């Protein structure tokens, strides 16, 4: 039986290099947007050669997609506070922090614009960002149904849209700050709507 030798040197994807590249991608996206981002600029900002990028992702679009998806999905939460209100409030807090993140708040409009022009990016956003984030938040409503806090026939897909839609509309479309107590108001509104 032959033993495989552990790869060394260039064959190993070093986590610190991957982290530097990830940070560079997010910084470049926030600074120049999707259309003007280049592999050369990312490599320069990360302090690596372009080959380090291509060892991880075969194309610019796949690199951007992977980095944005990882950043976004990692910020979704599945709190289990014991109540719909507590779970929903924690979920909306995480959503708010995600879309108002100093870098991501500058990336999100470009992501939406790119998805409107590019069907592949739109599908990727739904499948790699929206899908996993919604799968995580779905548990909030499933538990509420199991606890009897909301009716068993609650449309969970629609329930997920309510709070997120309200916050997105205010912050991104209208460009109006949330203000003190805003997330509590949204949470209470959604709980009342679903409990009715």
From TrEMBL:
Q: Which UniProt keywords apply?
A: DNA-binding, Transcription, Transcription regulation
User: At the top level of its lineage, which domain of life is listed?
Assistant: Bacteria
Q: Which InterPro entries match?
A: Homeodomain-like_sf, HTH-type_TetR-like_transc_reg, HTH_TetR, Tet_transcr_reg_TetR-rel_C_sf, TetR_C
Alphabetized SUPFAM superfamilies for the sequence: Homeodomain-like, Tetracyclin repressor-like, C-terminal domain
| Pfam families recorded | TetR_C_11 (PF16859), TetR_N (PF00440)
Q: Which residues form the HTH tetR-type domain?
A: 15-75
Annotated Gene3D superfamilies: Homeodomain-like (1.10.10.60), Tetracycline Repressor, domain 2 (1.10.357.10)
Provide the GO MF annotations for this entry.
DNA-binding transcription factor activity; transcription cis-regulatory region binding
Q: DNA-binding region at which residues?
A: 38-57
Q: What is this protein called?
A: TetR/AcrR family transcriptional regulator
């Amino acid at each position: 039986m032959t033993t495989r030798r552990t790869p060394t040197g260039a064959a190993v994807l070093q986590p610190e290099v991957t982290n530097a590249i990830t940070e560079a991608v997010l910084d470049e996206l926030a600074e120049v947007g999707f259309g003007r981002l280049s592999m050369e600029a990312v490599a320069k900002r990360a302090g690596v050669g372009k080959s380090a990028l291509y060892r991880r992702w075969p194309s610019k679009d796949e690199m951007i997609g992977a980095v944005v998806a990882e950043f976004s999905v990692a910020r979704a939460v599945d709190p289990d506070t014991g109540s719909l209100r507590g779970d929903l409030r924690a979920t909306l807090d995480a959503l708010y922090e995600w879309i108002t993140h100093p870098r991501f708040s500058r990336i999100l409009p470009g992501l939406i614009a790119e998805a409107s022009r590019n069907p592949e990016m739109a599908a990727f956003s739904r499948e790699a960002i929206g899908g996993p984030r919604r799968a995580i938040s779905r548990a909030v409503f499933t538990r509420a149904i199991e606890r009897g806090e909301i009716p068993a026939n609650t449309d969970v897909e629609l329930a997920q849209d309510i709070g997120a839609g309200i916050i997105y509309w205010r912050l991104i479309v209208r460009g109006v700050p949330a203000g003190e107590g805003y997330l509590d108001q949204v949470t209470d509104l959604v709980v009342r709507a679903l409990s009715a």
